[in-house]
Amino acid sequence: xxxxxxxxxxxxxxxxxxxxxxxxxxxxxxxxxxxxxxxxxxxxxxxxxxxxxxxxxxxxxxxxxxxxxxxxxxxxxxxxxxxxxxxxxxxxxxxxxxxxxxxxxxxxxxxxxxxxxxxxxxxxxxxxxxxxxxxxxxxxxxxxxxxxxxxxxxxxxxxxxxxxxxxxxxxxxxxxxxxxxxxxxxxxxxxxxxxxxxxxxxxxxxxxxxxxxxxxxxxxxxxxxxxxxxxxxxxxxxxxxxxxxxxxxxxxxxxxxxxxxxxxxxxxxxxxxxxxxxxxxxxxxxxxxxxxxxxxxxxxxxxxxxxxxxxxxxxxxxxxxxxxxxxxxxxxxxxxxxxxxxxxxxxxxxxxxxxxxxxxxxxxxxxxxxxxxxxxxxxxxxxxxxxxxxxxxxxxxxx
Length: 399
Prior knowledge:
Elements lengths: L16 H25 L9 H13 L18 H13 L5 H4 L18 H12 L5 E4 L15 E5 L2 E12 L6 E7 L10 E7 L5 E4 L11 E12 L3 E2 L5 H6 L2 H7 L1 H21 L1 E2 L2 E2 L4 H29 L5 H26 L9 H11 L7 H14 L2
Parallel strand pairs: 1-4
Antiparallel strand pairs: 2-3, 3-7, 4-5, 5-8, 6-7, 9-10
């Protein structure tokens, strides 16, 4: 019988009955079938699955109704409110499964294309969006470049219209999911050479096309191999693959930025819950001076601070989700949530390492991996400094 860890936050459930049912079923999937798959193939946080195994996970998650659940109902999803979405995602990441990012298809599945459905042509729906939603195709989002990160409009990748094709040249950097993606939603400049104004346009790009290669020979500090560069050299992209009108790429990319910022928070907090649980359990079993270190006040205070800060971050996340569900823009609030949750999650992981002592700095310990991964979240998807800029701007403009 599969043993599912008791949630750290076990008060009244904040979401809907449907969300509670999904969480129960997805926990069975993560701790049962997927746990067995990970053991059979030697998959853990340091050793990822290959493309064939991931596709097996995607298809199985789709068959169980998990893979596309975040999509609009018109696309076969459940049309979940944001509050239910964050609660389900938090539970998935708190499971500790190395397959957690793949249950929703977060790196390469439906979340990458759901917001594009309103802009996509029938051809694009058939060729890209529907296959992704049905776990038949993997897709990544390619915006970042060496000189374009926080300044999203500074992309140097160029797309020049030549008849019924665009000729695309450039290099995308740090693209999550690219090593196992079949296609990309790629942003490129379509401004005339030497033009003063920026014009960024979005395209569907088949990564198997001539003139495209994915370079994934590097790993991030978390030891993951799910990130790579996309290099385009005279790649011919059909005009039919352009998403929306020229110059509307950033609007498409940033149209759901507030929601997307919030949706990173449940991953961070789910992972931080793992770090807190590991620290608590280790403190109870580790003995020094004839008793468990959990009996020392210094350790108790660290655990208390970790739990309190985590509860505060979680309250901010859930409150912001409710504000979005109520129809608010919540631009400042989503940036506050991303800022506070990422900083808090890293502090929790840092204290967890401290409680583990020498064991906490040994590679192979989950707490050491969580420390590295949660450090990355302070940079990923908008740095803490960018979030502060947004918060300050909203505050100053409200006077």
